[in-house]
Design goal:
Elements (H helix, E strand, L loop, with lengths): L19 H5 L6 E6 L6 H4 L10 E6 L14 H20 L3 H25 L12 H21 L3 H14 L4 H13 L3 H14 L4 H29 L1
Antiparallel strand pairs: 1-2
Helix pairs in contact: 3-4, 4-5, 5-6, 5-7, 6-7, 7-8, 8-9
Length: 242
């Protein structure tokens, strides 16, 4: 944390939370100390120091008690499904509050539980009475596509275009009618300068949502970039053979 800046030390889920790394290796009653030190040197590190001059700044985390949970393989299908819904809902709340890293973590956790659940329900859908309380295989597939699409949006905002492309592509494969995933796939391909793939994604989006302004605008931008690319290519070729 640069000296003079503020950050929030927050207890919660996921690798994005600073305190999580401390808590993972702690037992009930143990304490952990976090030290905040300047990252700069010289004048940059000497400005806006604490009034008492005490460095490093310290924070103490104490794990007073905890409730043991279950590993995913210990959960029943219904328990897994409830956690999938919980993580998805938490991801939405985190995203709306501006915590994009946290949202991505929650969506990833939901997917890790949902992927094996889809296989389990598909194999024993007609055999186990318990699965009758779960969504059907098709409904689970739609939920899986939604999670991949939501994760893709987070990855775009975190400037991870390749991961965003992979997530959006999975969403479109699972549910070809999910127009949001096609839009995010097009955006990711644009960021990767894969203009042909971006164009195909936005064309597919227009098939689902005709005259959608965002897709029309994106296609115009791609056409403009393609023309610019062709002009530059022509100039390079003319220099090679002149």
């Amino acid at each position: 944390v640069p000296l003079g800046d503020w950050t929030t030390l927050r207890l919660g889920e996921g690798q994005c939370d600073i305190t999580e790394a401390c808590l993972e290796g702690m037992r009930a009653g143990e304490k952990c100390e976090i030290q905040l030190t300047p990252t700069g040197t010289g004048l940059e590190a000497s400005v806006r120091q604490p009034s008492d001059g005490a460095l490093p700044l310290c924070a103490t985390v104490e794990l007073q008690a905890f409730t043991p949970g279950k590993e995913s393989w210990e959960m029943s299908p219904i328990e897994r499904w409830e956690w999938v819904k919980s993580h998805k809902e938490r991801g939405g709340g985190r995203f709306r509050s501006g915590d994009v890293w946290g949202a991505a973590d929650s969506y990833s956790r939901a997917l890790k539980l949902l992927i094996p659940l889809c296989g389990l329900v598909g194999e024993v859908e007609d055999c186990l009475e318990e699965t009758q309380q779960l969504p059907s295989s098709d409904q689970l597939k739609i939920k899986k596509a939604e999670l991949h699409s939501n994760l893709s949006l987070c990855q775009l905002k975190l400037n991870q275009p390749q991961r965003a492309k992979d997530s959006a592509a999975k969403a479109t494969q699972l549910e070809p009618s999910t127009y949001k995933a096609w839009y995010r796939l097009g955006q990711a391909c644009q960021k990767l300068n894969e203009l042909d793939e971006a164009k195909e994604a936005f064309k597919k989006l227009l098939e689902l949502q005709p005259d959608l302004p965002a897709a029309v605008k994106a296609l115009k931008e791609i056409t403009s970039r393609e023309k610019e690319r062709n002009v530059q290519l022509g100039l390079r070729l003319s220099k090679m053979f002149s």
